[in-house]
Amino acid sequence: xxxxxxLSVVMITRNEAELLPDxxxxxxxxxxxVILDAASTDTTCQIARQAGAKVFESNDWPGFGKQRQRAQxxxxxxxxxxxxxxxxxxxxxxxxxxxxxxQPPAATVxxxxxxxxxxxxxxxxxxxxxxxxxxxxxxxDFHYNDNPVHESLDVRQAKVVKLSGCLQHLTCxxxxxxxxxxxxxxxxWALERHRQGKACGFFSIPSHTLGAFVKTWxxxxxxxxxxxxxxxxxxxxxxxxxxYAALWALHRVNQRDAQ
Length: 259
Fold this sequence. Notes:
By secondary structure, the protein is α/β, with parallel strands linked by helices. It has helices at 20-25, 44-50, 64-72, 91-101, 175-195, 204-219, 226-258; strands at 7-13, 32-38, 54-58, 79-83, 87-89, 108-118, 121-122, 133-138, 143-144, 153-154, 159-172. Helix 6 runs antiparallel to helix 7 (226-258).
């Protein structure tokens, strides 16, 4: 790729053989693709190597934040584009990224909109669009935090610039698989809050659950996303219920053990 700065696409993976080929195809124009795989048991690593990616493997799982930072440290480009296997870079977003690479260095990070798929529909409301995420930044200037889930880039006081184009995000193609992942996230969230000494009262469970439904369905206009909008509001409420119920239960166990 003939640009002023070199671009490294960086990914962390585990058992992504089904989704990975299309993701890699959307970023073949990058200077390098770096993948840190967490002990996949399918053909993820083989697919990545065949596509020309630099593949590294790890046997432990320190959490999403630390794993992303590990992967970033394996890259050699000037600029990082952090991706997931269920994301695809659109042609318009590619053009926007290439324009950034031709610019002089700056203390700037770049965000892009994500178009999120939920059960066959790319959502336009429900809090799922534009769903801006910071994914493009200078490799040496910015790093990920240590959060085990819902990790984020530490941008400090950097200016955030919006890129044109979007990432296509295949968030939910299979409801059962999506629910399993949501349950894992809820468990990780509750364990992390519990480790920090936080707790919640029993009535926080139904109040937060109802609030999540109202926010998705009404305040974020989920009703405009049709049947998928209603299902997503219910799923978000269920996810919120799982988080707070798990946190409450962990606190109860601690109280019982302390007696």
